Structures are given as C-alpha cells and as structure tokens.
C-alpha cells in the first residue's frame, strides 16, 4: 500500500516537473514530434476513418496585375489561408506553462492537397510558407501567397464598359467529398471588404465583389467537394474613351465637315484619305486588344467598322462626284467646242461664197 502511495507521489512529482518545464521541447516531446514520424505525414488526422476532415479556406485578393483579353487569363495576387484540425496533436495549455500555439514545419504533418482548377500559373509563382501554426485544440493554420494566373472566359461584347465575372474554384485532387470537405471560414462580404482593404494595385480594374459558393461536384460515382469564388471585376473605361472612342467620333465629324471644302480646290480627296488613314491607325490599336477568337463581334468593333465604312463610302462618293463633274465639264466644253467650230465653218463657208 505504501509502495502504491509512493508510486502516486512519484508520478505527481514527475508531472510537477513537467509543469515547471516551459520550453517547447516538452510540448514537442508530448506531441511525439521530436522524431519525424511518417504516420503523421501520411495519415489523414482523424480518429475514425469515416470522419470527414473539414478544411476551411479563405482567399483574399490583394492585387489585380493583368487581364489578358487575347489569352483570356486574369493575373492576380491572392493570399490563401487554410485551416483544418489534427485530432492527434492536441494539448492542454496549462500543462505546458500556457503555451497555446506552436509553429512547426509543414513537412512534419499531413496537409490537404487543395488546388485551383483554373490555375494556369507558371511554377514558382507560389510562395508557400514552409511553416504552419498549430493551436492547442489541434487546429492548423497555413497561409500561401500566390501570383495566380487563372483562365477566365471574358465576355467582351460591351468592351470597354464591361464587367467580368471570373471563377476561382478550389478542390482537392485526391480526396472525395466524404473524406475532405471544403468550406469558407469568413463570409463573402468580409472577404470583399478585406480584399478592398489590402488591395495594393488594380490597374484599370476595380474589384467589385467576391461571391463564394460551396458545392459537391458529382462525376459518376465520385463526388468532390468544391469551393468556388466568383470575382466581379469592373473595367475603368476612361482611357479607352479618350484613346479610341472620342477620336473616332471626332474623325467622323471631320469627315462630314469636309463636305464644306469646295470640290474645285482639289484638297478634298487628300483630306479624306488622311482621315481614313488615321482611322486605320486606331483600328490597329483595337486589334492589339481584342482577341480574334471572339464569335460575336464586340460592340466597339462594330462601331469602328461602321465609322471606317462611312468614311470609306464618303471618300468613294467624292471620287465619283469628282469624276462625273470632270466628265460633264469635258462634254460641255466638247459641245461648246463643236458649236464654235460649226460657227467657224459657217463663217469660213460664207467667206468662200463671198
Ligand atoms: C525541460 O526538460 C528537458 C527534457 O526533459 C530538459 O533537458 C530541460 O533542462 C528542462 N528545462 C527546465 C527549465 O527544466
Ligand atoms: C507518443 O508516442 C507514445 C509511444 O509511441 C504513445 O504512447 C503516446 O500516446 C504518443 N503521444 C501522442 C500525443 O500521440
Ligand atoms: C463510422 O463508422 C462507424 C462504424 O461503422 C459508425 O458507428 C459511425 O457512426 C460512423 N461515423 C460516421 C460519421 O459516419
Ligand atoms: C463560373 O461557374 C458557373 C457555374 O459553374 C458557370 O455558369 C460560369 O459560366 C462560370 N464562369 C466562367 C467565366 O467560366
Ligand atoms: C456577354 O454579355 C452580354 C451583355 O451583358 C450578354 O448579352 C451576352 O449574352 C454575354 N455573352 C455570353 C457568352 O455570356
Ligand atoms: C458506380 O456504382 C455502381 C453501384 O454502386 C457500380 O455498379 C458502377 O460500376 C459504379 N461506376 C463506376 C464508374 O465506378
């Protein structure tokens, strides 16, 4: 009996000495992380196999670098925070001097394999933090910064007054929906305001809204959990109005005004050809922006083509009018010439008769 009490006292003494040990070492030893364990890296960290790992994921967009209309891609800077729970790595903070979080290398433990479906980035554009934060409840937090190039079907029919809607879909490559479930931690309004707050550069675009939608994508017998962000981007059209739309309009007005140039001065034709050339230069700019894959012509292309056609028609008309004026002028001079010749002849004959 005394021996038993002795044992109890000893074990209390040991736990007491653990209490006084405030280094991370004791905690790591308690979590069995001092020697790298393969099991912790391979195993989805749940007690029962049929339990679902809930992975919550937040994406904040803090830069819109480029929207490529030709390649139909959007390049942005995103910051992704992923959280999940490891049911084996938990501790009671008071047992360890109140340590409530720990930073450990990602390589030591299981991390969910979440990727972006629309990703078309170069490798090396991901700056993933090699460490993750482990909370005493077993929650793990990891953050990734990425220069994300995502494909997006751009609808340019209202260019440059367009609003683009782009999808960024997160899903797990190898786990189905019953073992790994993706979900958001923050609401879409919070995400949008955070993105607005941290935005460092947006160029000619304005981030209007970020919507999120969680669903299971069913393909045959396999269903995969997906989390879709729909990013609403609003173009600032001022540059295109100044560069493209107004000059075209002014050139059209100039062309109409050239009706006041007298046809006899001979400058009319040259003036109209100059206007036509200026319009083709503007068309070249447009050609640089819009993709050739567009099935339906964007409205601005129709506008440019119609302005070009109107100027071309007026040029043609000027040429024709000039031609016919000259023709009729020559005929009338011919007629007058013949008449004067007849007068001459009659004069001549009358002189001979005389
Ligand atoms: C904490 O425990 C470790 C291993 O048990 C030991 O090496 C270290 O000296 C202890 N530190 C303190 C302050 O007791
Ligand atoms: C650490 O490993 C030992 C023996 O391998 C085991 O008894 C203990 O439960 C493990 N601790 C944790 C927190 O998994
Ligand atoms: C997991 O399987 C066990 C045994 O088949 C069952 O009792 C338990 O309810 C299941 N849990 C879930 C979350 O499906
Ligand atoms: C985004 O996803 C929705 C739903 O799948 C789809 O209807 C829409 O066309 C997608 N948008 C783009 C730009 O791909
Ligand atoms: C593109 O946008 C226009 C105007 O918003 C719309 O009428 C058209 O249906 C859209 N086209 C596609 C392919 O979504
Ligand atoms: C889907 O499940 C059914 C019944 O569970 C099975 O007969 C069928 O072969 C499965 N299909 C595929 C593609 O695995």
From TrEMBL:
It is a multi-pass membrane protein. Pfam families: Neur_chan_LBD (PF02931), Neur_chan_memb (PF02932). Forms serotonin (5-hydroxytryptamine/5-HT3)-activated cation-selective channel complexes, which when activated cause fast, depolarizing responses in neurons. It is found in: Postsynaptic cell membrane. The keyword Oxidoreductase does not apply. Residues 43-237 form the Neurotransmitter-gated ion-channel ligand-binding domain. Residues 1-16 form the signal peptide. Belongs to the ligand-gated ion channel (TC 1.A.9) family. Coiled coil: none annotated. PROSITE patterns: NEUROTR_ION_CHANNEL (PS00236). It catalyses: Ca(2+)(in) = Ca(2+)(out); K(+)(in) = K(+)(out); Na(+)(in) = Na(+)(out). This is Neurotransmitter-gated ion-channel ligand-binding domain-containing protein. GO terms for cellular component: postsynaptic membrane. PANTHER family: NEUROTRANSMITTER GATED ION CHANNEL. Residues 244-326 form the Neurotransmitter-gated ion-channel transmembrane domain. The chain crosses the membrane at residues 238-257, 269-287, 299-324. Keywords: Cell membrane, Disulfide bond, Glycoprotein, Ion channel, Ion transport, Ligand-gated ion channel, Membrane, Postsynaptic cell membrane, Receptor, Signal, Synapse, Transmembrane, Transmembrane helix, Transport. GO terms for molecular function: extracellular ligand-gated monoatomic ion channel activity; transmembrane signaling receptor activity. The keyword Transport applies. Gene3D superfamilies: Neurotransmitter-gated ion-channel ligand-binding domain, Neurotransmitter-gated ion-channel transmembrane domain.
